[in-house]
Amino acid sequence: MLIIGIAGGTGSGKSTVVRQIVSRLGEGRVSVIPQDAYYYDSSHLPLEERRKKNFDHPDSIEFSLLAQHVRDLRAGKTIQQPTYSYITCSRLPETVEVHPTEVVIVEGILILCNEELRNEIDIKVYVDADDDDRLARVIQRDITERGRDAQMTLDRYAKTVKPSHIQFVEPTKRFADIIVPQGGMNEVAIDVMAKYINAHLPA
């Protein structure tokens, strides 16, 4: 089994890179674990307070559980991945059953921040993209998927997303084995990664 970590700023194109790799390797061979599923539950707080949380800070993620789940998958165990709602800003009671596969991709902006998790990752990837391009994608995503309007997204970007990116996300680039510029548009880099992964899978 190979554990692939795909990090990078919000809106950098990580999900597109993941989809491209999965399409090249074949869905049955790859499991994808999103960092966002491991946000700590905050249902005990009023909704307005939940919405003010800094989701781009490492303290918002239950890394201990995420790292344990990666170890379990490597050991051949099935895990019950938590689920999280950005609409209610709380962890849901439902879980997703994830089985061990040849390749496990862990994807999220902060996955290279945590040493325990980082030590479980075989190939570390950082997806890079222009700040303006990232902001445009974030606005579109937050409106269509997370129930926010453009002003809410811009306010959050200025208060938490950009400062956290500078403090926590961008510095993790130094841990990457592979840096993918231009995000999901970089077909050459994605082809190289897919070939590398195939070549290093156990026979």
Total helical elements: 7
Ranges where pLDDT stays below 50 over 5 or more residues in a row are none
Give the class from helix and strand content and strand pairing.
Answer: alpha/beta
Beta-strand percent range: 15-25%
The helix/strand order is: EHEHHEEEHEHHEH
Give me the side-by-side strand order of the main sheet.
Answer: 2-5-1-6-7
Amino-to-carboxy terminus distance = 10 Å
pLDDT averaged residue by residue: 86
Radius of gyration: 16 Å
- The strand count comes to 7
Helix content: 25-40%
Spatial shape? globular
Biggest beta-sheet profile: 5 strands, parallel
SSE order and pairing:
Blueprint: E1 2-8, H1 14-25, E2 30-34, H2 47-51, H3 63-74, E3 79-85, E4 90-98, E5 103-107, H4 115-118, E6 123-127, H5 131-145, H6 150-169, E7 178-180, H7 187-199
Parallel strand pairs: 1-5, 1-6, 2-5, 6-7
Antiparallel strand pairs: 3-4
Textual characterization of the structure:
The protein is 40% helix and 20% strand. The protein is of the alpha/beta class. It has a 5-stranded parallel β-sheet, sandwiched between helices. Strands 3-4 form a two-stranded antiparallel sheet. Helix 5 crosses helix 6 (150-169).
Task: Briefly say what this structure is.
The protein is built from seven helices and seven strands, in the order βαβααβββαβααβα. It has 203 residues and is α/β, with parallel strands linked by helices.
Keywords:
7 strands; 203 residues; single chain; two-stranded antiparallel ribbon; alpha/beta
